[in-house]
Amino acid sequence: MKRLLYKSLISIVMVISMLASSTLPVFSISETMAKEKEDSKSKHVIPVLKITPADKTTFVRPDTPIKIILDSKAKNIKWFDKKLKKGKYSVTLNGKNAKSIYDGKNFTITVPNNGLNRYTTYNVLLKMKADDEGDDEEKEQEKDDDKDDDKSGKANFSFSFTTGSAFHEATRLDVNLEKSKVRVTEGGRLKVQVTDDYGLPAKNATVKVASNSQNLVVPDLLLDADDNGKGVVNLSNRVKEIVLLTVTSQDNLYRDKVNTQTATLSINFLAGPPQHMSVQADSRLKVGQNQTVKGVVYDQFNNPVEDDTIVTATSSAGNLSPQKQSTKDLYGR
Question: What is the spatial distance between Cα 170 and Cα 117, in angstroms, rounded to a whole number?
Fold first, then answer.
């Protein structure tokens, strides 16, 4: 009996020794809990791949579609896909429920857009509903569902964007002169283009030009739907001078600060072609003597002509030298 008991003890020790030497996977309690926590956390995060419009985007067109595209390769996509197909979610715009459509084939949630308000910040919230959020019939149907799916009911995703102007609203102004230097006898032409934030032509705007000169004559420009946002303002001035222009566009429907745009530029009105001149000379000249004749050349509006204007002189008696010369300054002399 003693021998038999001794042999049995030896066998037990050998078995225990073999088990201890084998390489079996061992998980500590803390590691197991951490893994479960990570899995649970992933079920609270909606696997969003892309959104339209992008988060924090500004000047978004009012007709831009609102879309949330999920990552089809995410580990937890099946949980959220099942919830979305059952309608266990909601989308709100600035706290108000919005109609939405889920495309399970492309994992895309779309909010139909009938036209967003101008210059408005929209906060979009996608919120998953827990299984107990529904009618009694739905609750009964979902009793047999995997309880882990309930954790996705706490998940949500949000982003925001800000729209720009209404379509064809006057918010952008572009101006340029055909010529920065023009003769007073010709006048100037100011080209104007007024658009919305997206480059579409303004359909109801007024353009006005102010200046630092009382001599400038300029009419207002009205742009309507037939003008394609473009027009020409004629600038008339009979006085030789440099004029500073301030161009202002104003939408005729909206009256916010953004609807009044200004631009500044300058135009140089030059004298017209020579029309007449005044001469200064002694009335009497003795034979054999010389005399200097001075004169000022003017255009038809009595502006002194520009420098280097050619002047030709003739006389009925005596000699003139030189017979042809040019004015030397801005005063037509």
Answer: 16
What is the DSSP-derived secondary structure letter of residue 229?
T
What count of other Cβ atoms lies within 10 Å of the Cβ of residue 266? Answer: 12
User: Per-residue pLDDT averaged across 268-278, rounded?
Assistant: 88
Q: What is the per-residue pLDDT across 124-172, written as a single tens digit (0 to 9) for each?
A: 999 998 765 554 544 554 444 444 444 555 799 999 999 999 999 999 9
Question: Residue 298: its pLDDT value, please?
Answer: 87
- According to DSSP H, which parts of the chain are helical? 2-21, 29-42, 77-85, 136-141
Average pLDDT over residues 39-49: 75
Count the Cβ atoms, other than its own, within 10 Å of residue 155.
21
Among 286, 76, 253, 265, smallest CA distance to 169 is for 253
Question: Pick the residue with more confidence: 185 or 294?
Answer: 185
Cα dihedral 198, 202, 206, 210 sign: positive
Q: What does the alpha-carbon distance between residue 89 and residue 134 come to, in Å, rounded to a whole number? A: 11
Rounded distance between C-alpha atoms, residue 107 and residue 72, angstroms: 7
The answer to whether the beta carbons of residues 272 and 299 sit under 8 Å apart is yes
Spell out the domains of the chain, with CATH numbers in brackets.
Answer: 37-163 (2.60.40.1220), 172-270 (2.60.40.10), 273-333 (no CATH)
C-beta separation of 215 from 237 below 8 A = yes
Which structure tokens are listed for 306?
């520009």
pLDDT for 75 equals: 93
Q: What is the pLDDT of residue 313?
A: 61
Q: Nearest-5° angle of CA 74, CA 75, CA 78?
A: 90
